[in-house]
Specification:
Elements: E1 4-8, H1 13-24, E2 28-33, H2 41-50, E3 56-58, H3 64-73, E4 77-82, H4 89-94, H5 96-116, E5 121-127, H6 151-168, E6 175-181, E7 183-185, H7 204-212, E8 219-222, E9 234-235, E10 237-239, H8 240-255, E11 262-267, E12 273-274, H9 275-286, E13 292-295, H10 310-316, H11 324-337
Parallel strand pairs: 1-2, 1-4, 2-3, 4-5, 5-6, 6-11, 7-10, 8-13
Antiparallel strand pairs: 9-12
Helix pairs in contact: 1-2, 1-8, 5-6, 7-11, 9-11
EC number: 5.1.3.2
Keywords: Carbohydrate metabolism, Isomerase, NAD
GO molecular function: UDP-glucose 4-epimerase activity
Length: about 350
Amino acid sequence: MRAKILVTGGAGYIGSHAVVELYNAGYQPIIADDFSNSQESVLDGIQSILGVAIPSYRIDCGDADALRDIFNREKDVQGVIHFAAFKAVGESVQKPLAYYHNNVGSLVTLLQVMAEFGLSNLVFSSSCTVYGIPDQLPVTEQTPRKDANSPYGNTKKICEDILTDTAAAPGSTLRTILLRYFNPIGAHESAKIGELPLGVPNNLVPFITQTAAGIREKLTIFGDTYDTPDGTNIRDYVHVVDLAKAHVVAVQRLLDGVGDNVEVFNVGTGRGNSVLEVVKTFEEATGVELNYSIGPARAGDVPAIYADVTKATTELGFQTTATLAEALASAWKWQLSMGK
């Protein structure tokens, strides 16, 4: 009998890949998504990969009655992975109340309903944005959190605090793992699912692939005067399939009852690559030359951040395997599958 895991935001970029990896690892994922930032065609992609339809519910995770309905219908859910959230940094600056209402409110509602049903196990989708501009690199899980550069980043800090406080409350049975993601890129090897931005991409790699495909005229690199080897921002780019597999390991750790009630793990490669390195690696991996130019730096961009993954490797027993070139090649294959 497959253990049922509710995946909120399960039709999103990371969520859809996690659904595939959960099923392949012997779990029964249940998708909850309102499709506000994803497309229902993703469900077809998942079914094409797995050969089975995954149960899916169109709900807003801030709707307590809708969550109760899922838990009543899907008996014996063993755990939840909470991806559902708004995630565009720039938009969060323009619409802070929408971000606080959705990201923080949905977590509070989910925790309340989980408590009603005696459900304890939660993997939370957090972010390296909680580290702000770090004083030292690489960042460990003990690196101090700093003031967020955006309302989006602040929602992740607040949600982490809510989970920590809830788990510490008298009588609480909550057990939670906070996974702090670095920069997910790439797509499933089948090219059936991948990053599917609605409108103009906010992330580097979709902008690269859309420029390579001729959808965008050129790629603008925001700044080349940072205190980095080539002057461009440095990030830790992790293949989305590797990231998805980290969630499977985290779920199993919770179900096994291993570890503390609240645990934090960085999920990255442990390596930093500059924007120019990503551009050059893409060109080498695909044979496609990119049209790009250097533009002004963006306010709020962190010059450099990448993970120390020692804790994830030693305690969670997880490490990434995909190279930057492999991740970028998979992103290009996904872009080509959608047509130019």
